Fold this protein.
Amino acid sequence: MMESNLKFFFEPKGVAIVGATPQANRGGNNLLINVTLGYKEAIYPVNPKYKEIMGIKTYPTVSAIDGVVDLALIFVPAAQTPGVLRECVAKGVKGAILENSGFAEVGPEGEALQNECNNIARKGELRLWGPNSMGLIDAGKGYVFSFMTPSLWDGLLKRGGVSLIVQSGLLSAGFLFTIMSHKTLGLAKVCSIGNKCDITEIDLLEFLLDDPDTKVIAFYLESFSNGRKFFELAKSSPKPFVLLKGGKSAAGAMASVSHTASLAGNYRVISGAIKQAGVLEADDFFEMMDIARVLEKGFGERENSFKAGRVAILTYSGASGIVTTDYLEKFGLDLAVLSPATIKRLEILSPAWMPVKNPVDYWPAMEKNGPVVAMKEGLSALYVDPNVDGVVINLFAGHGVWGFDLLELIDVIKDRKKPILSWIIGLKDNVENAKIRMEKSGWPVFDEIHRLVKVMSVLLQNR
């Protein structure tokens, strides 16, 4: 029987890097450097051309290694892979991550090669991850089992609660670097599964559901290996799922065949099942991560049951309040009708000449009471209103009267029972500093109103 626990991928005792090379900027060199930066147990480069690489003893084959090897990271030409896998079986390796391409995604010959690899692994009780994969990253442990350029990781790998399962390699890597550089998303684990010839999203999903570091699971999938099982797990999971489905259109489904040899399936059927299972669906990569980072902060937990869609807007500008209102309608949300008690609280803040209504323009209240008092009391009043399901705050980060700590305003709220999402504009450095501080403290910030409102609609309407 194959071992069902995938711990040997995530906590291996001994790692072989097959295809390691001293040649700079080559995948095999990047892979070796990345592993040495975070993994502190035994590392075994494998390449018959060298006696040592980077001062580390190097072996001609996997079976020649003189220590325990749980995991092999393979970066060799596709045609050499069956031979490498036979060596892994002979050595008793438990798992192999194929980070090379040239298999089922390229056509019949590649598919035959992939099937050969599968047969070798299955007979030898070796689990295969990939091929056509970027590999595995564990931000908590600092493990980067990937061939991506090492310098790009320097100082950017931020630990958090979002785990990714992506059926993509280079795009997921490029996208990952983009979101890490913004310093607003914390990651638990990143799993690039490629063609998923053996290890599938279901295998990894079952592992991540038991992973204490994972709070939210986000997916980019072009196909489902077991749709029924996926939706059963989603429906019963206490952890929220966010899905970006590739191949929704007929043309997109065809493209997915040449990307990861996937059969995308009927999207209309899939979409209905997604909603029934409580999976939150995204339309692009940034939206997927926007939703995930909001969920990671505790908004949208299932016991809170956000299902209505009545939104209050607190804004320093009448125009931005109007634009936000337009997007509420576009995404099927309602402008909340404020309760009499809320209106009374806000009237005390506002000048006598200023009528109180939603959107709430707090600029006159700022002039009367100062920005901190006006914002704190205004936000508090809207948040506790029983007619309000979520709050949008429009903020400005600047100097002078605007030079206060935006985080101080929002920290008046102590729970996460209703989503509070902020849109910030202002001086570049001030905005970046405010965003990083607010995100770190658990308050989601957006650069674009339409993205903010779309995420709010997903949280409130599960759409």
The chain has two domains: 7-296, 304-461. The domain at 7-296 is CATH 3.40.50.261 (Rossmann fold).
